[in-house]
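Lay summary. Proteins are chains of building blocks that fold into shapes, and those shapes determine what they do. In this project we predict the shape from the chain. Here is one chain we studied, written as its sequence of building blocks.
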Amino acid sequence: MDKPNFKLQYKNWSIRFFQEFEALAYKAIFERGYVDVDFNKQHWNIHLKNILSLNTNVVRLLFNEEVLVGFYILQFHVLPWNQRTYSLLSLLHLSPEFRSVGTYSSMFKDAEAIAKLNNAAAIQALDQSILMQESERRTLFHNTGFNLADNIWEKQDGDKIDG
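And here is the predicted shape, written in a compact code that computers can read:
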């Protein structure tokens, strides 16, 4: 359960939040193990700015008082075979002390409202987009109305895996 002294508030992305957002986004990818010895800060900043500037992406920031404690990235895409708009919660991140089922549920509800405003036929999320124990994450998805629709299979270049 969330601590009662939290005063959480969502805000739309704005350039004035870039430094705070960049720092928290870096923590998000670092905690997920995506940062390695080849990390290039300049490339990272360009990529981050590209994500923020695409009109098919919605970035919502979560503040406690005036401190950025979380964010999510909701990406919209139209399927070419039926012209329906779908949305994907590609990343939800919270500072560790704010990680709870209640806060993540709030983020899902906020994202769902944004998806509905954009006439999305569905909202999707990936397991990796949320840092929680698997049992808690599955409960969170089920309690917020998500169903497991598919699994993603991936093959990576063997040379890169072996190092």
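What the prediction tells us: The domain at 8-147 is CATH 3.40.630.30 (Aminopeptidase).
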